[in-house]
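Service request form, structural biology core

Requester: graduate student, group of Dr. S.
Request type: structure prediction, single chain
Budget code: on file
Notes: please return the result as structure tokens.

Sequence provided:
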Amino acid sequence: TSHRVPSNGYAVVHRKRKLRPELLVDVPKAEHAARMKQLRAELTEDELYETEEVVELAYTGDSTISWLDGAGASLALKAKLLVTEATFVCDAIDRAGAASRGHTHLDDICANAERFSEVGALVLTHFSRRYSEADVRDAMTKKLPPALREKTTPLLLASHHR
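Core staff response, request fulfilled:
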């Protein structure tokens, strides 16, 4: 990720290893064990199994929107749940101003909405204390494209965003 200080993003990936379905086609159930023993003797692990990766959770931490062009973006953008920041939501601080402070503006998220198409759910966090809960919700309603708005939730703390 990209912030004013060194920062990292994280992804929790669940790897599922499954037998390649074509290996037991036309083999009667009663003969599966014998066939598997034979296959294990003849094939490598990679030839026997396919691995499916499911990104359960990704978290960017404090970052500018440039994380989208980083090495981990491909994982994060396939996450069932992605948590990223949107520190600024109003026009008083624009996208460039947010980036110069090491943060993301809601307008950055909107400008890249299509890149979030495979994300299951998006949680936006780290909103500036200058905004009330109503300010954040109103900005999200007005600015986020409908498809992205449907799967986006703001993480708001009542004691923090008054």
